[in-house]
Amino acid sequence: MSSYYIKKYGVHELHQSNCVWLPIRKGMVKLGEFDSALEALKKARVLYDEVNPCSTCCSIGKKRSNIMSVD
């Protein structure tokens, strides 16, 4: 299980806690612990209309353009 964070200002971006691109935690919201980035992304999209997964730490297994809708 990994911890996930969302950047709450500007473009909402999902990051794992160990991501090299994770912005300073100030301005981040801890989303919680999840087994996969896809699970975290689904939860994030309940809270925010538009959330993009970090291309470095949130491998979803699909191209970014194809994950705008996760059901």
Architecture overview:
The chain has one domain (2-66). Helix content is 15%, strand content 30%. The protein is built from one helix and four strands, in the order βββαβ. It has a four-stranded mixed β-sheet with strand order 3-1-2-4, with helices on one face. The longest helix has 11 residues, at 37-47.
Structural class: alpha+beta
Annotation field: number of helices: 1
Secondary-structure element pattern, one letter each: EEEHE
- What's the gyration radius in Å? 11 Å
Quaternary state reads single chain
Strand order of the largest sheet: 3-1-2-4
Round the mean pLDDT to the nearest integer and report it. Answer: 83
Distance between the termini: 21 Å
Overall domain count: 1
What overall geometry do the principal axes of the alpha carbons give?
Answer: globular
Keywords:
alpha+beta, about 70 residues, 4-stranded mixed sheet, 1 helix, about 15% helix
What would a concise description of this structure say?
By secondary structure, the chain is α+β, with helices and mostly antiparallel strands. The protein has one helix at residues 37-47; strands at 2-7, 12-16, 28-34, 51-53. The protein has one helix and four strands, in the order βββαβ.
